[in-house]
Write a structure and sequence with these properties.
The chain is α/β, with parallel strands linked by helices. 35% of the residues lie in helices and 18% in strands. It folds into two domains: 107 residues, Enolase-like, domain 1 (2-Layer Sandwich), CATH 3.30.390; 258 residues, Enolase-like C-terminal domain (TIM Barrel, Alpha-Beta Barrel). Helix 7 links the parallel strand 7 and strand 8. It is globular. The structure holds (2S,3R,4R)-2,3,4,5-tetrahydroxy-N-oxo-pentanamide and cobalt (II) ion.
Length: 410
């Protein structure tokens, strides 16, 4: 009997592991009768236990006894078969199952996951890191440090003078981590000051670092469409790789207005969870990069469909890769990045040492790129004994208000 026979592929166990090695992560561990284990990330920042409960109560009972090799049918069962579709909780839970099954099937084949998708299209995946500072000079120093460490692409964020806490800026001097407190931290926002500052920041960065480094910026949904159009136009001289989340995209047509005024490339989608969230944006070529990544959008099975659709319209991938996406998601994303023909860039915020110790992995950073490993599956495992030493800590993302108290987009 081989490990790959239908009987041996039967799922006999599925467990949800919650751990907080510096920040919370939810991981789904699926095991087959033959003892092959697959892992999927199920982390939804600030809403971790909602996904854990969704998995535990509504998904796991359906997994036991299923053939782990039926990845597509399992995806269709949980998506198409269900009455309640989409939404970040559901799609994150489906993603965890999907990635764990791809991990299992690749291990059964004895191949790295990228090989199951169609093999390599490139060696490493170009990644961008995060430079942030309390003022323009400090941000520029951070960009320099990234270039010295080998980064070829850097996202730059700068505190807005007069605002106490700004998206993307660390308050503690440590790496930026937005979900800091049990209840949401109240932060302030002022668009006029921000719109003046950002072009100044990038003017300085081009003077200090030249034109070879790719520069990116994240407006984090704070602008109205016409304000976003102004920022995109004002940034044109500095040739950004992209301007991200310039305005909220629930109304996808808002981006028509930005496009009418600017040729700055646009990236959108880290909060999307299905192809339907970006169908108009992609079909109308209103964006250049789609940020939707594996863990929050139904796993490899759905994101592959999304990437193929995007390719028809010359939209490239630029997957979300903040620290709230666990190494399990990063591992899977890097295999995807190695294959996907319309690859653009991959975000990468380094995880803490504790996180890297809980999730041993074989991807490596070299010369501005991340390289997935050659071990079978996605190459990321979990040290459960160590994970158990870091129990869940309630933490939510901040909120933002204008000076007069109006609740704003975060
Ligand atoms: O705020 O991942 O581009 N990266 C980002 C991140 C997000 C967090 C939210 O969970 O916008 O920093
Ligand atoms: Co972002």
């Amino acid at each position: 009997m081989t490990e790959g026979s239908p009987r041996d592929r039967e799922i006999v166990n599925a467990r949800v592991i919650v751990t907080c090695p510096g920040r919370n992560f939810v991981t789904l561990r699926i095991e087959t009768r033959a003892g092959i284990v697959g892992l999927g990330d199920a982390t939804l920042n600030g809403r971790e236990l909602a996904v854990a409960a969704y998995l535990q109560e509504h998904i796991v009972p359906n997994l036991i006894g299923r053939d782990a090799g039926r990845i597509e049918d399992t995806w269709q069962f949980f998506y198409r078969g269900a009455y309640w579709r989409r939404g970040p909780v559901t799609m994150t839970a489906i993603a965890a199952v999907d990635v764990a099954l791809w991990d299992i099937v690749a291990k059964l084949a004895g191949m790295p996951l990228y090989q199951m998708l169609g093999g390599r299209s490139r060696e490493g995946a170009l990644v961008y890191g995060h430079a942030n500072g309390r003022d323009i000079a400090e941000t520029s120093d951070e960009v320099r440090r990234h270039i010295e460490r080998g980064f070829r692409a850097v996202r730059a964020q700068c505190a807005v003078p007069g605002l106490e806490k700004t998206y993307g800026i660390s308050s503690s001097g440590k790496a930026y981590e937005p979900a800091e407190s049990a209840l949401p931290l109240e932060t302030q926002w002022s668009t006029p000051q921000y719109l003046r500052l950002v072009p100044e920041l990038f003017e300085r960065l081009r003077v200090d670092h030249g034109n070879d480094v790719e520069l990116l910026h994240d407006a984090h949904h704070r602008l109205t469409p016409i304000e976003a159009a102004r920022l995109a136009r004002d940034l044109e001289p500095y040739r950004l790789f992209w301007l991200e989340d310039a305005t909220p995209a629930e109304n996808q047509r808002a981006f028509e207005l930005i496009r009418r005024h600017s040729v700055t490339p646009l990236a959108v989608g880290e909060v999307f969870n299905s192809i339907w969230d970006c169908k108009h944006l992609i079909e109308q070529q209103l964006i250049d990069f789609i940020r939707t990544t594996i863990v929050h959008a139904g796993g490899i099975t759905h994101v592959r469909r999304l990437a193929d659709f995007a390719a028809l319209h010359q939209v490239r991938t630029g997957f979300h890769g903040a620290t709230d996406l666990s190494p399990v998601c990063m591992g899977a994303a890097l295999h995807f990045d190695a294959w996907v023909p319309n690859f653009g860039i991959q975000e990468w915020m380094l995880h803490s040492q504790e996180t890297d110790a809980v999730f041993p992995h074989d991807y490596v950073f070299r010369d501005g790129r991340l390289f997935c490993g050659e071990s079978p599956g996605h190459g990321v495992t979990i040290d459960e004994k160590l994970a158990a030493k870091f129990p869940y800590v309630p933490k939510q993302l901040p909120v933002a208000r204008l000076a007069d108290g109006t609740m704003w987009d975060w």
